[in-house]
Write a sequence for this structure.
């Protein structure tokens, strides 16, 4: 069974540019989560989808971040315009039951 | 609000046993999870405790005491490949709140 996949694995962009991260969850998992880990700090929750609906987006830092989950399958996280403090590793996770989460390999975003 | 406390680093010897503690303060607690993360890798689910007591999965065991808001991860027969960061996490409503992680160093 394929795990959670994320694309790209790395992204280096300049401040002010736009980046879109993609996550493909494990097939059949209704729950999809986005997390971010800034260097040296803990993994922080960003938001949670149940199918195509946003269940909880209380962790989204600001309105420069936009997450979508088309048709309840893959999800995208867009950062526009990117700022230096947005650098970090963005993880996506999916879950069949909300407490056992399977993480993707992450996207390392560097904003210069 | 919510917070989790765990040691930042722990060092142990290959073949030994190590315990990583986690205390938490959170409202609406539903369970305590443990995740392992190797450098450059993704967090990997290890265990979940919703009720008090010990859960055993091979060389790894996890314990929870809800009355003490405390849990631990026990790793036995340590192997070099166990060198990683270990995160405790609480399930609150539909989200998971992670601790800052414990870096486990294993000496040969």
């Amino acid at each position: 069974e394929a795990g959670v996949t994320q694309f790209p694995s790395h992204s280096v962009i300049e401040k002010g540019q736009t980046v879109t991260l993609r996550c493909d969850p494990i097939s059949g998992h209704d729950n999809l989560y986005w997390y971010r880990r800034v260097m040296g700090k803990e993994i922080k929750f960003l938001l949670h989808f149940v199918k195509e609906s946003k269940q909880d987006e209380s962790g989204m830092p600001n309105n420069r971040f936009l997450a979508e989950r088309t048709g309840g399958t893959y999800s995208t996280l867009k950062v526009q315009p990117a700022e230096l403090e947005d650098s970090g590793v963005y993880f996506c996770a999916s879950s069949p039951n909300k407490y056992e989460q399977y993480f993707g390999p992450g996207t390392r975003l560097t904003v210069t | 609000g919510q917070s989790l406390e765990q040691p930042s680093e722990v060092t142990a010897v290959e073949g030994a046993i190590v315990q990583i503690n986690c205390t938490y303060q959170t409202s609406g607690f539903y369970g305590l999870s443990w995740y392992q993360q190797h450098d450059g890798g993704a967090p990997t689910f290890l265990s979940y405790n919703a009720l008090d007591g010990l859960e055993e999965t091979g060389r790894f065991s996890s314990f929870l005491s809800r009355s003490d808001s405390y849990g631990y991860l026990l790793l036995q027969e340590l192997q070099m490949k166990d060198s990683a960061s270990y995160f405790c996490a609480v399930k609150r409503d539909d989200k998971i709140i992670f601790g800052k992680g414990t870096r486990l160093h294993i000496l040969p």
Summary: DSSP finds no helices and eleven strands in chain A. The interface with chain B takes residues 4, 31, 33, 35, 41-45, 48, 50, 55-56, 58-59, 91, 93, 98-106 of chain A (CB under 8 Å). The radius of gyration of chain A is 13 Å.
